Amino acid sequence: DRFGNLRATGGDVVDLSMLAPDGKTVVAASVADHADGTYGAAFKLDQAGAWGLQLIVNGRGGRTDVAEVTANFGPCRAQDCTFAGFGMDGLEGVTTLSSSQIRVFPIAYESANRRMSGKESLSVRVLTPSGGISAVDLRFDRGQYLGTYRWTQPGLHTVSVSLEQEAVVGSPFTVEALAALPEIRELENMSVGDINAILVKMTPDASSQALASLPPEQAAEALAGHSGAAAARMMNGMFPSATAQVLSGMAPVQAAAAVGAMSEEKVADVLGAMAPADGAKLMAATSPEETA
Q1: N or C: which end of the chain has fewer CB within 10 A?
Q2: How far is it, in rounded angstroms, from Cα 177 to Cα 92?
Q3: Which residues contact residue 28 at a Cβ distance below 8 angstroms, ignoring those fewer than 6 apart?
């Protein structure tokens, strides 16, 4: 009571309000009368930080040993998170050889300053049109996760975002990657290994466009190590003159293997566009079976 004595009965009108750390939001607690002079209060707080308490008993200010409550967010669950990026905003198209960023964060990231811990088991996986599955490398940054993915195949991709093996709200979703002519400056700045990794995942038309965008000597270097059949497939959509230039920059044996996998019509067009000296080297490296 007001004299500091313990109460033995209930029946009082008890109101408990919580003032948010931002000083603006007020949450009214649900008070339960235990009918023995004690009262319980239940409340749900949507902001992390120190919440002030205001107790009113029978219309008068009450005394409490607790002046504030410090609230902390619990672990983020899949239902608490969302994501953005990967062309989902519809403002920027996704094209092959371009890169997109995905951002995974708590729904209350901005409104309540909620943050992830960096210890979550989070995964972003991309199912490509060819049936392959690629895992997106994620990095933790200021309470959220960021990842970058390079689109190497045209067509419909399915993206899955999961937290602790549960789908995040909105997952899975699809992304349509459109085939685009690679920009020369972009490919020229890539390593041979990166170009090779891209070429083997592209359609024949797209790989031909990519090779045609490179200087002939760089395209020849990118094809080194591929089988003759693979090299022929990648060059199938190139003009004969461009194909001839690339073959001239390849080792004679590799060039001969590629020519051996081409159609007779393609070979005739390529040899017709090739310098006589380069054509002679190529024919010299061609086996009798291939020239028959």
Answers
A1: C
A2: 11
A3: 15, 16, 17, 18, 43
